Automatic annotation (TrEMBL):
It holds the Pfam family GOLD_PATL1_C. One of its GO terms (cellular component) is membrane. It comes from Gossypium anomalum. GO terms for biological process: cell division. It is found in: Cytoplasm; Membrane. The keyword Zinc does not apply. This is Patellin-3. SUPFAM superfamilies: CRAL/TRIO domain (SSF52087), CRAL/TRIO N-terminal domain (SSF46938), Supernatant protein factor (SPF), C-terminal domain (SSF101576). Residues 35-44 have a biased composition (Pro residues). Its main location: cytoplasm. Keywords: Cell cycle, Cell division, Cytoplasm, Lipid-binding, Membrane, Transport.
Length: 598
């Protein structure tokens, strides 16, 4: 049975190469959208892509045991997502070989202009006349065969049509006499006239007479037409090939075409290798599948008009739905997808009400992604992927048909044309029903894809984000300290994190010197704690100054507390946070000093 399955799978490929089993991959890609299509909600444009790639890879893994048992050891390193190198010299040998083979295929395609013009239209005018000539010759042969098959009785009845026979004889005599080359076309015209006249007279003759006329017509055509046509056709047949050969010898072959994706040529330098490796990893280093994916991507980008799309003005109504802000701890740019914004009925209708609006949303989303990709660093050691944070709080459920159609449409485009651009997928404020859905599709995902996915309930969302993104980079609405329009602090000012145990107090001290202005800000995720601040001078005879009276702060009161204290003597500012709840609390704070003068 194992041999039968191997034979059935390798049938469409060349038998000489085991790698030809790669033909299975296109079949897998057709199956891929099925598990991902039901995802109604979080199918963020970029987030969905890795999910789809994951489904692709898993589908391949299910079929691998049949054919690729020997290759599993070669691909184990590519299955590991973390810290995959883009330096060609550091790739494992099988991946190096796959990259070289892909380059060769692309170079041949560029030389043959396979990415752009299709020369089918040019071949048609050359191929059409030849079938016509063959058809005429076949007709003439059939007519000669009919003449030979005519009975002797019919031939003996030819004198019945006295007026036709001399005409035919005259035509033959004229054709037998060598006419001058210029008026050679005249006899052909006469033959046509005679044939029409005979045809008209044949109407008044009986059946036997009609057959005789037809026999005469055939004989006239057989005798008169071929010599003239042959004399004309034979010289042209000899001259045409000579002229084509000379033209081909004179015209040099066109130079290879130049094709770029995301501003990077397919074959140029190390940046090109980074692009090609993305397609190879998306197809599990199956060279033919990766090459097909590249060709399809290039074709789609031309049809979709990507280059002109970059300059289109599609409005800013969705700037709160999808936006870029900050970087993760490894330097990846972070993209936030906020689906709860679609609870606004007006925004929802303006975005998904009909096909035209959904098409505009899709173009806007692709434009946003393209602009974000252009900011990535495609050097082998650069950051060329991003982190996706998907906020599912108050997101429309699976009952929203229009949103589901738009996300599925985007999913199909992203999975086929934007491979390996997501380093991490973080889902926050995840409702219970989405977790159930994830458990249902989890068996279809590879370990590589699962390593990219992170899910967090509303209570754990901020804490989960801080594992991958520093608090100073996290927007304030998600528990961080990054705010727009700030002047005192920026993302360059590091934030300290402290976990306060249940029913415990925690103090933070900021030492200061003379003539100093101390500025600080802090927040407790979820708050529901008591907060107070005071200044304690260094001098023993100094007086403690209450900077902020102790008060209870709830999550609805303030998100971030900003405060300052000016002093002319050395000492320290002590902040006290009293957690009287039964839950742990995450404290974030930072400070800076400024020169102070009276």
């Amino acid at each position: 049975m194992a041999q039968e399955t191997l034979n059935s799978e390798s049938a469409p490929a060349a038998p000489a190469q085991e790698v030809s089993v790669v033909v299975e991959k296109p079949q897998v890609t057709e199956k891929e959208p099925q598990p991902s299509a039901p995802a109604p909600l979080p199918e963020p444009e970029v987030p969905e892509k890795p999910a789809v790639v994951a489904v692709e890879e898993e589908a391949v893994e299910v079929e691998k045991p049949k054919v690729e048992e020997k290759e599993e050891t070669k691909i184990t390193q590519s299955v590991s997502f973390k810290e995959e190198t883009n330096i060609a010299g550091e790739l494992p040998e099988p991946q190096k070989k796959a990259l070289d083979e892909l380059k060769q295929l692309i170079q041949e395609a560029l030389n043959n202009h396979e990415f752009t013009a299709k020369p089918k239209a040019e071949e048609k005018p050359v191929a059409e006349p030849e079938p016509k000539k063959e058809e005429e010759e076949n007709k003439e042969e059939k007519k000669e065969e009919k003449e030979e098959e005519t009975p002797a009785a019919e031939i003996s009845e030819e004198p019945k049509v006295e007026t036709d026979a001399p005409a035919a004889v005259e035509v033959k005599e004229e054709e037998n006499t060598p006419p001058p080359p210029p008026p050679a076309e005249a006899p052909a015209a006469e033959v046509v006239v005679v044939e029409t006249e005979v045809a008209e007279k044949a109407k008044a003759v009986d059946d036997d007479g009609a057959k005789t006329v037809e026999a005469i017509e055939e004989s006239v055509v057989a005798v008169a037409a071929p010599p003239a046509e042959k004399e004309k056709e034979e010289p042209s047949a000899e001259v045409a090939p000579q002229s084509e050969e000379t033209k081909e010898a004179q015209v040099p072959p066109p130079p290879p075409e130049e094709v770029s994706i995301w501003g990077i040529p397919l074959l140029a330098d190390e940046k090109s290798d980074v692009i090609l490796l993305k397609f190879l990893r998306a197809r599990d280093f199956k060279v033919k599948d990766a090459f097909t994916m590249i060709k399809n991507t290039v074709s789609w980008r031309k049809e979709f008009g990507i280059e002109t799309l970059l300059n289109e003005d599609l409005g800013n109504e969705l700037e709160k739905v999808v936006f870029m802000q900050g970087f993760d701890k490894e330097g990846h740019p972070v993209c936030y997808n906020v689906y709860g914004e679609f609870q606004n009925k007006e925004l929802y209708q303006n975005t998904f009400a009909d096909e035209e609006k959904r098409s505009k949303f899709l173009r806007w989303r692709i434009q946003f992604l393209e602009k974000s990709i252009r900011k990535l660093d495609f050097n082998p050691t650069g950051i060329n992927t991003m982190v996706q944070v998907n906020d599912l709080k108050n997101s429309p459920g699976p009952g929203k048909k229009e949103l589901r159609q738009a996300t599925n449409q985007a999913l199909n485009l992203l999975q086929d044309n934007y491979p390996e651009f997501v380093a991490k997928q973080v889902f926050i404020n995840v409702p219970w029903w989405y977790l159930a859905f994830n458990r249902m599709i989890s068996p279809f995902l590879t370990q590589r894809t699962k390593s990219k996915f992170v899910f967090a309930s509303p209570a754990k969302s901020a804490e989960t984000l801080f594992k991958y993104i520093a608090p100073e980079q996290v927007p304030v609405q998600y528990g961080g300290l990054s705010r727009e329009g700030e002047q005192e602090f920026s993302v360059a000012d590091a934030v300290s994190e402290v976990t306060i145990k249940p029913a415990a107090k925690h103090s933070v001290e900021f030492p200061i010197t003379e003539n100093c202005n101390l500025v600080w800000e802090l927040r407790v995720v979820g708050w529901e704690v008591n907060y107070g601040a005071e200044f304690v001078p260094t001098a023993e005879d100094g007086y403690t100054v209450i900077v902020s009276k102790t008060r209870k702060v709830s999550s609805a009161d303030e998100t971030v507390i900003s405060d300052s204290f000016k002093t002319g003597e050395p000492g320290k500012v002590v902040l006290t946070i009293d957690n009287q709840t039964s839950k742990k609390k995450k404290l974030l704070y930072r400070s800076k000093t400024k020169p102070y003068s009276d």
